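Case study 2.
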Amino acid sequence: MEEQNYKNHSRLVPMFHYVAFGFITLVIGGSIIKFYKSYTTSLYGLLTPALFLLIGVTLLLLAWYSRVFALKAQDRAIRAEENLRYFVITGKLLDSKLTMAQIIALRFASDNEFVELARKAVAENMKQADIKKAVQNWKADHNRV
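Prediction:
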């Protein structure tokens, strides 16, 4: 597996991010066009395009929330893992001022720089991208989807 770093750590799943969302977009777009054409010519043919539009929007919501719910579960696991790692190193819990985005970014820091970077993240209110860029010794996370 390729060494992970700031430039290559984000992960896209082509069949999900491009194909599935592309098909959903086509269903929604096609049904909007058909709905409009049916509306301008005759009101009797609106049921089918309206149902396809409803199906498309439902698919979009399902795809979106399936991704969001999985990420929320992973975020909770990451928070617990990083809190445990911080506790093992320092004997204290992570600062409660750290945001979830900051904690997610801190997971890439090696143990040597983790504590100092966590302190700096709170003191300077660092953004997620800035924390990731500040990591010197990248600790890969190949399990995030």
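The helical segments are 14-41, 47-90, 100-106, 111-124, 128-134.
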